[in-house]
Structures are given as structure tokens and as C-alpha cells.
Amino acid sequence: MILSIGCNPAVDLILETEDFRANALNRVAGKRVLYGGKSMNFLTAAYKLGVECQASGFMGKRGAPFKQLLKSYNIPFKFVNCPHDVRTNVKIYSGANLTELNDEGFSVSEREQDRLIDLVEQAETDMLACSGSLPPEVREDFYYRLANAAGPKVKFACDCEKAAMMPALRANPVLIKPNRAELEAMTGGSLKTFSDIVNAARLLITRGAQNVLVSMGADGAIIVGGAAAFWGQYAQKVQAANPMGCGDTMFAAACGVLLMGGNLVDVLVQAVAAATLAVAGPAIAAMDMSRFEGVRGNVRVEPIK
Hints:
alpha/beta; UDP-N-acetylmuramoyl-L-alanine:D-glutamate ligase; 6-stranded parallel β-sheet
């Protein structure tokens, strides 16, 4: 069982334009609304992959659609309800390009933070997976505090930006999943080669991470653990229809395999296959799982020396 924590849920307003231009009038060709945030994306992917989860975190007003979605997945949840509106993020698709305008989210009081810490401490789970940004007025070490509340017998995994990740490393997460840009921000260098990425990942391992999975979009992913490092990529060209949430899908897949005791190659293959299916469809929830084993069998893996 994985307890997925979402501290900053979001209503994603997705707009489609033919040729988006800044400082100009743009016509909307299509629009849709998704109930997301990184944790909700994680949970949707986990549901599609058959990974058993439960959900917690902060939930604002307008939270009913999020809860209804989790009910449809048969995912149990216990949220700390907050008296503020859930944020709205705007995603603008123009051809293969994606422009994102993300709100910072609602404020969360100290009392509400303590309630979530209590929920995590009381939860029965095998893994704690923390995803996404922290709301305003929440300390940057909050994920570290949640990991401590879960206790030493619960595996801890984290997918977030530098500000929340660096304190979280002190909890020795079994897995962290930065993308290349986030890894550059965490380690302070330009990562142009696979060797650069592996060396940067090993720097985070010296700071507490056990394994580092780096998502790289069309270039696949790299996983580093101890002295081993592997690169994985789907062997065929994929027409990217939906880049949004693919990293969250990769994280969910990786956590599911780690929970079952899989090795680095197992984790990498599952993660790349899941992300490939996610990017090929209109949304994570629309992943065609009948194709999964075929995609998984076409993931190319090579060791990095």
C-alpha cells in the first residue's frame, strides 16, 4: 500500500490553440478541465497500473470532484479540509508546445499542517509518496517532517522541486524523481551528457537519497543507485499527444515496482513504459493498458559506465 500525499491540488484548465503567441490575441480552439496536481496524477497512474494506494493531503473548497474521482478509482482518502479555494492552473497547448501558468495555491495554517502530520502518523502503509509543490506558509522541510511521522518502517519517496527536496533528503528517501531541469537546480550545474546526469544524481545520493530516477522527456530516463546506473528509452518513435503528468506517471510506476522489491532495471523499464503510454494518449486516465506489455517489451535499457 502506498500513501500518496498531495499538499497542493489543482484544477487544470487546459486550452488548445493553433499558434500561441505572447502579447497577441489568441483564439481557443478547444478546452477541457482536469482535476489534478502531481499527487492526483500519481494516483490516476497508480490506478491504471494496478498499484494499491490511499490518498491524503490538503484539500480546499471545490474539492468534491477530486474526491469523486478517487471514489471512482476505489482509492480511500482522508484529507485535511481547508477553507480556501483549490488553485486553478492554466495549461496552453499549441501544437507540440506547452505553456504552463501555475498558481501558488492556498495558505495552510500551522494547525492544518499538524493535522496532516497526525494523519500520516496514524496511517497504515508500506510507502509514503510525496508529490508536488508546497502551499504558501508551509515550511520547506514539511515532507521531511511527514517522513519522520510515517516512521522508519515506511519507505519514503519524493517528487518535488529543490526547495522541498533538499530537506527531504535527510529522511533517506528510497527514491527521488527529478527531471533534468530540477536536477540541475538541485546540484547547481548544466547537465549536458548522461555522465553529467549520473554524477549529479550521485551527489544527491551522498546527501541522503538511495535511488535517483531522472526523467528526460523524449530522451527517456536514467536511474542511479549505489554504483549502478542505467539509461532506458522506448525503442520506437512516439507522437507526443500529452506531455502533462508523464513524470508523475513515471514516479507512480517506479514506486509500485520498488514496493514489490524490484531492482533498478525493473523500476526503469516499468517507469519508461508507463510514461510512454501516458504521453501517447490524451490524458493519464486514458492510457490504453492493453498495450502496456507490448510497450514494456520494447523499452531499451543500457548500463552507463
